[in-house]
Amino acid sequence: MSQPANPTAAAIRFDAVEKALAAQGKGRVVALRDVTLEVPPGAICGIIGRSGAGKSTLLRMVNGLERPSSGTVTVAGHDVGRAKGAGLRRIRRDVGMIFQHFNLLASRTVYGNIALPLEIAGLPAAEIRSRVSDLIARVGLEAQAKRYPAELSGGQKQRVGIARALATRPKVLLSDEATSALDPETTQTVLALLRDINRDLGLTILLITHEMGVVRDIASDMAVIDAGRIVEAGPTHDVFVSPQHPTTRSFLSGVTGINLPGFIAARMQDSRPDGPAQEVIRVTFSGSHATDPMLARLASEMGTEANILAGAVEEIGTRPFGNLLISVDAAKGAAARGFLDRHGLMTEVMGYVR
Ligand SMILES: Nc1ncnc2c1ncn2[C@@H]1O[C@H](COP(=O)(O)OP(=O)(O)OP(=O)(O)O)[C@@H](O)[C@H]1O
């Protein structure tokens, strides 16, 4: 078996991973196909996909809950798929996990839940006390330390989950839809906590989600999974600016503030109609580009008036990213796009309206 040239370079690495599962009545289901993906140390990597795309299967391979049918999964250079016994336990200590429904023990307090993995690992009582106190402070639950899960809000429960996952000082944190059961405001506070942990502890985070907003708000890198295949991957900013795959685009249309007004969407058609029509163009820009002067120049230099239909500027990481939907006279569409492209904006024809 060939080994990667520098097996420690990536925190997590999937090499040509396939996973076939025996499904009742359906024969074999191929959950993952030829998955190759590298997560650099210290990255926050978001994996997005629809229900059944294979996200959970992919995540569960990182702590050995699933083994590849073929291919290799390594964590910090250790082959998880082939590890057994003490070797597998050692890898699992390096990999913490948090869950959508928190998976806390109802019979234990906040303190007791966080202490559990340390008790299992057999740490001395004094060491457990000191570590748990530090973790409780880190996740901001000092006032709740003696409470039971039933007395906590969803956000507080997830904080306990995060503290428990960090107890064994892992190198990697896996997040299985950790904010899916939370309201938008609580989601933001939990994502902020994960960002702090990533920054302060240098922890690599691999998270799965079906929400592009989560990827936008936290992930430095992302991959899109569709029917068991990685169809697109790269730095989050780059994927947002220039999505290549239809699945990525469909996920993006929900978050980038570029949904067409209903009365236009209803009249859109794919091909240019005969007679006068408007071409609807998506304009994407990143960095410090300002579109206003560019649209003014489009009018003054090209004689093409653009109607602004929708738009939003957001921040991904620390870099601005903008999306604008405009319409121009279809007869001048190609020239307008050429002008905007030449000036560093990216354009794409969305369709036509009469
Ligand atoms: N234990 C299993 N036995 C048989 N098939 C399975 C098993 N687990 C998952 N599958 C199948 O593998 C495919 C991928 O499932 P997986 O749970 O990884 O997707 P997912 O993207 O996490 O979906 P969701 O977001 O709904 O949890 C699906 O077709 C699913 O039905």
Automatic annotation (TrEMBL):
PANTHER family assigned: AMINO ACID IMPORT ATP-BINDING PROTEIN, METHIONINE IMPORT ATP-BINDING PROTEIN METN
Keyword tRNA-binding: no
GO cellular component: plasma membrane
BP GO terms, sorted: amino acid transport
Annotated organism of origin: Paracoccus isoporae
Keyword terms: Amino-acid transport, ATP-binding, Cell membrane, Membrane, Nucleotide-binding, Translocase, Transport
Occurrences of domain ABC transporter (ranges): 12-252
Keyword Endoplasmic reticulum belongs to the record: no
PROSITE patterns: ABC_TRANSPORTER_1, ABC_TRANSPORTER_2
Gene3D superfamilies: 3.30.70.260, P-loop containing nucleotide triphosphate hydrolases (3.40.50.300)
Pfam families per record: ABC_tran, NIL
Family, similarity comment: Belongs to the ABC transporter superfamily.
Function of the molecule: Part of the ABC transporter FtsEX involved in cellular division. Important for assembly or stability of the septal ring.
Tree of life domain: Bacteria
GO molecular function list: ATP binding; ATP hydrolysis activity
Name of this protein: Cell division ATP-binding protein FtsE
